[in-house]
Amino acid sequence: MTATRNLGFVAAGATLLAAAPLSAIFERWTWLIQTSIAVAVVAGAAALTRLARMPLWGQALGMLGGLTLALTWLFPAGTELVAFLPTPGTFAHFGELLGASAQDMRSYGVKVPDTDPLLFVTVLGIGAVAVVVDVLAVGLRRPALAGLPMLAVYSVPVAVYTDSVPAVPFVVGAAGYLWLLVTDNVDRVRRFGRRFTGDGRDVDVWEASPLAAAGRRLAVVGVVLAVALPLAVPGMTGGLLDTLGSGTGDGSGRPGQGGNQGRVDLFASLSGQLNQSEVYEMVKVTTSEPNPFYLRYGVADELRPDGFRVRTPTGRPVTRDLPDPTQRARAGVEQKRYRATVKVTKNLAMPLLPVYAEPVRTEELGGNWLYDPNLQVLFSNRDNSRDKSYSFEYVRSTYTPAALRQAPSLPSDHPVRLQQTATPPAPKVDALVADLVRGKRTDYDKVRAIYDHFSADNGFTYSLTTKGGTSGQDVVDFLTNKAGFCQQYAAAMAWLVRAAGIPARVAFGFSNGTGRTDDGYVLTNRNLHAWTEVYFDGMGWVPFDATPAYGVQGSTRSAWAPDTDRPEPESPGAGSPATPDDAEPSAGPAGRDAADRETDAGLAVGADAPTREDPTWPWWAAGALALLALLAAPALRRAALRRRRGGRAAVAAAPATVGSGAGGSERTMVVQVDADRARADAHAAWDELLDTLVDYRVRVDRTETPRATAERLVNDDLAEDATAAAGARLLGRAEERARYARAPLTGEELPPALRAVRGALAGRAGRRARVVAAVLPPSVLLHWRTAVTDATSRLVTRAGDARYRLLRWTPRRLLSSRPHR
Amino acid sequence: MTQQTWDEVGGELLPHDEFRAASEAIVANIERVIEGKTATVRLALAVLLAEGHLLIEDVPGVGKTKLAKALARSIDCTVRRIQFTPDLLPSDVTGVSVYNQETHDFEFRTGAVFANLVVGDEINRASPKTQSALLECMEERQVTVDGVTYQLQTPFMVIATQNPIEMEGTYPLPEAQRDRFTARIAMGYPDPGAELAMLDGHGAADPLRELRPVSDADTVRRLIATVREVHVADAVKQYAVDLVTATREAPDLRLGASPRATLQLLRTARAVAALEGRDYVLPDDLQALAVPVLAHRIIPTADAQLARRTTDAIVSELVHRLPLPHDRQRSPYDTRPAAEGHGRGPYEPRKG
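^ Those are the sequences you sent over. The predicted structure of the assembly is below.
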């Protein structure tokens, strides 16, 4: 009983140690006091219930009751009896605390102060973990399972922290877990009695038992497997091992964990930065390009009813080859390679890095940083852009309007088009787009018509403050109010282009600011910008900046998207040549229903035609087939064995009959027939008989001679079947002659005898035995197991020899003062 | 010595059917006296053909001496009978040199062992001194008296009887003596039918009197020569060695069987196989012979004796535990890999 009590104490202690990772969340350490009290009460309740020899459910109930009392005492509502007996009011208070804790979790960032709701949740959680650990470790004696709830505690800071969680708390928690395991095992060994070696001598208390060598070997095998398996699986190497040194996860940003870049609201940060009165430098960039387009760091391409949202990027490390945009080279597209160096100041802290589109090679960036070839952004799941400086080479593509005009429309089932042309229902927008693109034949003309719509002629103005509207949709409000800043223009144009059935998205970055200085461009928070990118088949993503140029410092226009206000830059409201024409509303977004189909994560936008993802079912089918093959292997092996043995016997039978027919007497027959072959046939038939016996669960005794085995079969199993009995005797006679006589038995047909015996045995066996014999023949399994056992024992023997030889040279032998046993 | 000696047995082998006829005739002849004991009779004959000696051990009155005499009479050869008594002297067994006054010379008067068949009745009643007189002749088939060595005739067989129950006034056979007996057999009580037949047959006159020889020493020699030619496969030899080794390693036994036991086991197995009409020895023969051939040579430990485990039980348990040697005569068609040498075959039940 003391052992159990001791184990319960250790379980409580291990739970407390496992709670160590929470120290990374709280500002102070006082949470530990409350938690310790709760865990202690739980452990005490467990000990008491065990003292009363309660069943396991009683223990669990007792622990939960203890936890409730502790919580009541620690977080009183004021209505308790004798300070710790809960009342309905207490539970109402608990409910409030729970609700408030959710609020606190949202409002506070790490590290959090000691608020009552958070402390309550912490104590409740750790207490519950203590209950579960106690039940698992002491009640069920499965301490290994107790690692799961303890690991759950560690997952809390992992979920909260964006980049990395300090390792020390994990080590402390793991130490607690190991403590629990060791205590349980020591207890187990003590129950067993004395520790001794395989050959029965005692082992000193602190000497490692030779029996533990098996455990050590298992541990080594486990570690080797854990390391080697990712190496062996090709898909896993990319993430784990390439980035092992820098300690990142694998190549895809996982959403759902607070603070991940997947949930960075670029729109919010952009408008927030633009509205700040303070101006500070964010990025310094030098480039060999004379007049570069905008520096770019983010993309929003997921259109929701409330606007564009950022999709979680996926990609691969920038240390690998990046897609080469020069593959898209064609007439009218000019592509030049430039080099740029970026120095990020401490003011820009994002999991994204600003680059010029489209980077082809990076320097001074580790494997932490990944490149999403779809979104053309550099991102990281672990690292931060703060104070980063790096350089990269990029390819700048410039397009002539003629070339863009020649780009064909994307087919309606193209994945990019399926994904990037979805728009939420907005009848006003659709009507406007239909109006704008009427009569326009090419994609470029349609885009230009939409682009030109955002001109001062149509009343669009730049304003950092936007007025609200009544339509309920921001885009409609903007199109009505016609006042906004870059992100409204960018998003509205992207929406409209999508509504016209052409893929579009919103890009974020920096405009060129106050212009080039001696050491390149200095970009501040005021230079943050957003613009639209439109996908043209064969060209890729082509930027269009619809924001009025006067509102954007360092605005840059291109040949394919000229400044719509250029004729009268200072007079918004002037007319524009881009008047909507009448045209057929054929450009309605097609295939919208299938739009939520995701494109392949590894889709190479740089390539001409992004390929659809391969279907996964062949892999499943192959896996199922492999599994089937694995399951069928014993049966197939058995069938092959039977065929081989049967075939051999049939071949040998022929000369035997010929011999008996020609010679007529036994002596001549012996001369004529190949004795070796007859012997092998007899052995094969006998082996087959033994395997059949094993298959049908008939005892096989190695101390029996073939004759005795045959007689036993005849007496026990084949008494009713005269043919089978004669067959069994014949097989036994043939085998004993083959084994022990000068000349083997010849002139007898063994396969029919074998068939008769097998049939009789199958008839006697139960259905289950028959099915097992057909599907998973025990004989084959037995052979394999024997082979494995033999191989293992050979290996162990050899390893033991080697170890002994090594130990002969160890200096420890000389130092050892203990007499050698 | 005109008769053939032990090592000179040879000559032409008996054909299979003649061997069978001769051996069956002897068995049938003996069975006219000893009813319902075919297995015992055949074993006795097998010991004769294996050139061994037979120890018949059983309670009085079950026909030990009858069997010995019937076997002796069935074969037309010299038979001597010794009644072992406490005052029997070694010279009565081996012979003695006496001074012949006519020739003024010592001349050797042969003892009882100078015969083809020597029946020693109640052998344990003689003192060990007298019993020891048999040691040389049984193993070496020669008698040395006064420095002169006399070869014995062949076939030479000692058939001794002894009573295991009544030990008063007896001298247990020394280990060396017991080891020289090839087999020890027990007669056992006859079954009721056989006993009834015995009442009829033995009621009027002793059938032993009417027993006529059906064979002679020469035929027996040829039978022996034939037995020597019986084939023993390597696996069977290995099994014999395994069996004997098992008695040496058995925890219940203080003394295991000797190498002589191995030899005689195999020799007897040959004879048994030949009697059954085979020209090869089976492990079955060894299994059947293990108790008669091995059980009287071994000495159980004190613990086993306290547990009242007889040597017969220990040996038969060994036989049931010992796996057959697994390797076979390999043929060019046998493609399986050679079996591992550590004796664990694929069908051995897993331990623990």
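Confidence is low (pLDDT under 50) at residues 1-7, 329-352 of chain B. The CA atoms of residues 56 and 161 of chain B lie 5 Å apart.

Shout if you want it in another format.
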